[in-house]
Design a protein that fits this description.
By secondary structure, this protein is an alpha/beta fold. About 40% of the residues lie in helices and about 20% in strands. It contains nine helices and nine strands. The strands form three sheets. It has a five-stranded mixed beta sheet. It has a two-stranded antiparallel sheet with strand order 1-2.
Amino acid sequence: MKEVVVPSYKEGLKELRGSLAYMLPGDALEIFDVDAKALQKEHTSVLNLNIGDKATDFTLSNAVNKSVNLYEVLKTDRVVLTFYRGAWCPYCNLALNQYQAILPDIKDAGATLIAISPQSPDGSLNMQERNGLQFEVLSDNGNLIAKEYTTVHAYPKNSLDTMIEMGYDYDSYNSDEDSALPVPATFIIERDATISFARSEGADYRNRVEPKEIINALNK
């Protein structure tokens, strides 16, 4: 069997930051960074469910509007559940691409990967197709499920205004007109619905759970 190369999010982040420095106006990138740091200071405890808690059940639509129920999936597999901001977020694209890279390891450990964001099914489909993702990408209208698991916050106004000035129609991505976003977080849910791994790198969305941490937790 071909060995799966486990990517490093921190290394990928260095490359991404270099690319963003060329792609974005310097003042825009500075605004995003300032807001990210402010979110980290404001939200010091972000997880609403932790290790040992029972996972909240949900039924959400996937990228082709098919319903996916957590407890139904748990009948056959453990679940790696990750919350992300949306297809427009370069840090989300990096993280989900890296999680795609370790999908064989996740499957070998008897688990299914599910990603959730507040974007619409069309937005999820765009994310899935553009990145070649082979796992479920679900739409959480109004962040109702995200609120059960992690912190949800308003998109900082300066960042939102900057996105609009750069030509991004942010509201077109989401299922509703609420600009709220989930703090990225990742959970492992056992087949009895018990959470065995709960991790967030905080409200600074530039940081994400390393793929290696997920694999190690699954193989404990």
